[in-house]
Amino acid sequence: MSTTFTIDTSTSRANPTPAPMKRLTIPAIQARKGGDPLVMLTAYTVRMAQLLDPHCDMLLVGDSLGQVIYGLPSTLPVTLDMMCAHGAAVVRGSYHALVVIDMPFGSYEGSPEQAFASASRVLAETGAAAVKMEGGAVMAPTVEFLTRRGIPVMGHVGLTPQAVNALGGYGARGRSNAEHAKILDDARAIAEAGAFGIVAEGVVETLAKEIVAAVGCPVIGIGASAECDGQVLVIDDMLGMFDRTARFVKRYEDLAGRISAAVTTYAGEVRSRAFPGPEQVYAPKP
User: Is 99 helix (H, G, I), strand (E, B) or coil?
Assistant: First the structure.
């Protein structure tokens, strides 16, 4: 049995309840290469994990939480403490999806040993199944070092947000022949080093298709191609929580608009004293 956390509707508090061990495994994800597309979304909180879990094969606790949750200008200031806290929350809120946690900038690039210390802490403190690291061929020895020591690694090539300063922005990658070839080589190197999956972000579609064909592990696209082995989006982007989103995001809802409308109604009722009404106040006992 595993333990998941459900919201007690009478108290709005998370309480642990036993659930059958149904969580997807690394081999199960690997077996989906070339099969049914894998569904992946980001999650940062218990409640969101509960809502997404029945529909997703993987939940990514992305370092995008720096911008989405904390209002930071980029992912660079995100810390291991942040990733561990949110990662543990997402694991508690799920029981089906495999949970992957981003390694934040500066926590793994120094050496394989540094990466192992950081990754082992993340997995031990959160209960997640895997970590994700950005970078191509230069990170292959680190990926091999971790996987040989029992830490599953998902790679990330193409547009790598932690390298935004070196890349010069968030534009699509792989437009030039040289960059196209480099990213393809990066993907091959990471796969050969033992990564169980690779995120291909913000790459031209032809390159995404080549990556899918070139590696033996599942390729998860974000701004890549529908022919990838799966797709991932930032949950707040696809739900319409922000005014601006990347070109590759499809908005499936306008939650920002719905929240604004609900709060407008609430504020009006408070100011008119229509809320609270008889149903929301306590009468004295007879």
Answer: strand
Whether 231 contacts 43, CB under 8 Å: no
Contact 162, 182 (CB under 8 A): no
Closest listed residue to residue 61, CA positions, set 20, 103, 31: 103
**CA-CA-CA-CA torsion sign (64, 66, 69, 72):** negative
pTM, two decimal places: 0.91
Q: Between the CA atoms of 137, 139, 141 and 145, what dihedral angle is there, to the nearest 10 degrees?
A: -150
CATH number assigned to the domain covering 2-160+167-280 = 3.20.20.60
Question: Which of the residues 179, 201, 210, 279 is marked catalytic?
Answer: 201
- 31-81 residue pLDDT tens: 999 999 999 999 999 999 999 999 999 999 999 999 999 999 999 999 999
Q: Kindly report, residue by residue over 173-200, the tens digit of the pLDDT.
A: 889 999 999 999 999 999 999 999 999 9
The reply to whether 201 belongs to the active site is yes
Residue 254 CB coordination number (10 Å): 13
List the chain domain ranges.
2-160+167-280
What is d(CA 87, CA 138) in angstroms, rounded to the nearest whole number?
26
Cα 164-167-173 angle, rounded to 5 deg: 110
